[in-house]
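Exercise (ungraded).
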Amino acid sequence: MTLTTTSSPPVSGGSGAWRSVRAELRRRTSLKVSVAVVAFFALMTVAAPLISALGGWGPEEFDKSAVDPYLGGLPIGPLGGVSAEHWLGVEPVTGRDLFARVVHGAQVSLLIAFAATAIVVVAGVAAGVAAGYFGGRTDTALSRLMDLTMSFPSLIFMIAMMSVARDVDRTLLMILVIGLFGWPGVARVVRGQTLSLKHREYVDAARVGGSGPWRILARDILPGVAGPVIAYTTLMIPGMIATEAALSYLGVGVRPPTPSWGQMIAESVAYYDTDPMYFLVPSVCLFLTVLAFTLLGDALRDILDPRGGRS
Amino acid sequence: MILYLGRRLLGVIGVLLAIAAVTFVIFYVLPSDPAAAACGKACSDERLEAIRAHMGLDAPLWRQFGDFVTGIFTGRTTGSGQYALRCDFPCLGYSYENSEGVWDLLVDRLPVSASLAVGAAVLWLLLGLTAGVTAALRKDTLTDRVLMVGAVAAASLPVYFTSVLLIYGLIRLTGLLPYPQYVPFTADPLSWASNLLLPWLALAVLYAAMYARQSRGSMIESMAEPYIRTARAKGLPRRTVVVKHGLRAGMTPVLTIFGMDLGGLLAGAVITESLFGLPGIGRLFYGALSTGDQPVILGVTLLAATFIVVANLAVDLLYAVVDPRVRY
């Protein structure tokens, strides 16, 4: 037994991997910046009401004194009404504070993206491990289901489902709908990884040693798939954020006046010429978040999953 | 090979039926009542029943679905007597909004969406693969870094942001391009291209960035294979080694995502089409959603699914052409 246990899994989520994450973090400046950006927006998500209280305005508070009714409601002052009062300027016509809206928008956008990602990861890992480890009919059935889900025109389907549901919690529905189409990606990665792990010597050793399937899954397989899953998940988050933004942009996301980035961009597109600041604020936030998560995911993949999840 | 193809085609039909069934269930058990909408405000109960019967909405759900599926292959007749409405093969039903055949609507709009998708695909393949392969061959040099930083940034730009920047830069500021207005290819190829160039660019920026990242990765992998060393050792020119041996094998992962991307776009890029006001399937779909026009929604979903499934099949068959190690 002692002999067989010396062969270690190729990709471990253990301390070795985290040490190299930390080492990489010190080495790459781009990674440092992206971690900072992610932390910044994560903080915004958690503490949105507190942060926007700093600015002194609520996200749904109108300020008619900040817009010029004779100019079609354009903000008064330079750069879309940036002032000590309104840090990032105001929305045209309504005069709502952009800082407050973008902070609360971060909360809505990122919460939906994170929650959908959580669903996708849990469902994907469960399905992937089951398909890979149990094989046979379970594998056939689950693989078919993955193929079927992946054949759905997902964006079209999401839009349709969001637009037909009327009296439901939009945020919850959006999380479920986005999550519904994401799991096969994770499941495929996990299935491949599980297949390559399940006949490794240390797993066989555990089996010979009398471990039941659940114990093997939890103690031997799951830690082995953790690395690729973490990398894949981080790379998936920008897609989730972009999907949420796209749905909100198309007007089937969260209901106004609750702000979300996609919805703010959709409203501001008409003003890109007359009030560029209004358009730029949510767009740049969206861009930075997506970029930061992509860079972070790239780095994690390089460290935790050198073969890119293919086996 | 023929056996494989037969099995795959059966699978395709199965997948499409499943998608049609799911779509059908979701959109036909809705609270909205199209018959009541068609009947208008002053509507008697008998009239409502008559319209329901005419639309075939009085039958149980499975019957409606069965009628719908057989209608696709054989055509079908709804209503009876003088109100009978014959819908010929391939029947996808009639739009609740303007009573036009859904099939005709789709055929009418498809050239726009297809022009957008195919043109953008050509552009993003050219840009993306060139950037990806160049970066892979110059791995860890300045060129590589610049290209990849550019790619990761471009991949993070949402398509509506790129579109607005392009509209502002190329139309508003410099007037280099006209505001897109769809001109059929058959009418005037040159004006077709110049009108679509902007939407092509908007889509291509995003996809090219993703393809550059993907193709760099797989190219680096395939250039590390032993057969590349063999090809080099044989004294083949570098060009042949890169293109015939490295690129061909490195293209399989790219081909996979290309099938899904192109298939998905052919049935309409909803955001791009609405941003640029192109009358494609995406716009048709978006319009149908706001009016609850279920036959159109179902038709577009099915068409989109068909494109994706067929594109995936085509890709699987192409593997054998691209990668000599794949045989069916």
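Further reading is listed at the end of the chapter. For now, observe: The CA atoms of residues 242 and 297 of chain A lie 15 Å apart. Residues 98-134 of chain A form the longest helix (37 residues).
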